[in-house]
Predict the 3D structure of the following.
Amino acid sequence: MQQAIKVDDLISAAEERLASRFKEVDGIALVNQERVLAAFRHHRLTEEYFAAHTGYGLDDAGREVLDNVFASVFGGEAACVRVQFVSGTHALACAILGNVEPGGRFVCLTGPPYDSLEEVLGIAGDEPGSLKRLGVEYVELDLDPLSVSEIEMIESIEKVESAGPVSVFYIQKSRGYSSSRRTFSGNDIARLCQAVRKASASALIIVDNCYGEFVEDREPLSCGADLIAGSLIKNPGGGLAIAGGYIAGKRTAVEAALNRLTAPGVGGHMGLSFGENRLLFQGLFMAPFTVSQAVKGAMLIASVFEELGMRVSPGSMDERFDIIQQVEFGQADRLINFCKAVQRFSPVNAHVDPEPCRMPGYQDEVIMAGGTFVEGSTIELSADGPLRPPYSAFIQGGLSYQHVKCTLRGALALSLSLELPFI
């Protein structure tokens, strides 16, 4: 009982400290909800667009309207929203592979990409179909607008351009599994895009928008990017999408990506939604609110662990640009215990323990706690991390703030009782 009171006091104190920040999050959610609602109204959504179709899907009017709504919400000329994208990595791969030129170069501006993208780019492994096998050179820069001046950014980009034509400049908004880099804001992305445009007028700018949708009140396309891509079982699916991804931006670039998903000449004209249109529409409608719940939950986790003397990133009072919260545990067993504790307070599979294992696309063993309704969903509360120093958990999601709070409370109690110590 004393432990429960201590935990409750710790959480209550954190909520008091965060009260003003929570109001700011609610304000951003309102702006985003208004934008989403305006898109739904503009495109005159009706029940007929929820209907399921068969075969080629040539007459799937709901698919077309869903694409148009996403384009309006994210500020693009066009969009494609497809359950056929098996992951965010798949959507990104189609966006990249559809828009690189033979013999061209792919330049990542923000340091190493996600582990899961390394084989797509050919910087790990030697998979058929990778950029490397297609003869596209991978170039990596590390341009953080907080530490690199605009002149230095332009000079770095011009130096790369002078060595050969660049097809794509790539920006990863979120930090991924990196403990050394930060998540980029819309302002950061705008500065990078401005530097690219001053050095290279023609190359396409693609932004990996995973985990960042609706956290700020604007999206990368309004910051100068040409194309964005992400997963529907993250932020924009609102916890209701069962699978899929999206791409939005310049019409020609979206069409090129669709040619990779299907085939040249087919593009986006075919492909069933498998009766999922209603959930995709409804998930998008819920997304601004759901994301706000996840952001508040991440802030609470950061504040409590800060009070316990642990290293977190971002800090509890820092601005948020994605839904990911990093907590460093310093030891493998503590990371594993924390993930097991999170799993115990999941709505699905709470009775099982996650174990570290090898996963496709990752170079290290990864432990994942995710008792989610949709497998792999990270807009639902989950915690995972690679088993490598500093043994950080990357916590994301939460369909409701209350679930995050319940999980934090229960996990701390398990640690204090020494059943699953991680503090």
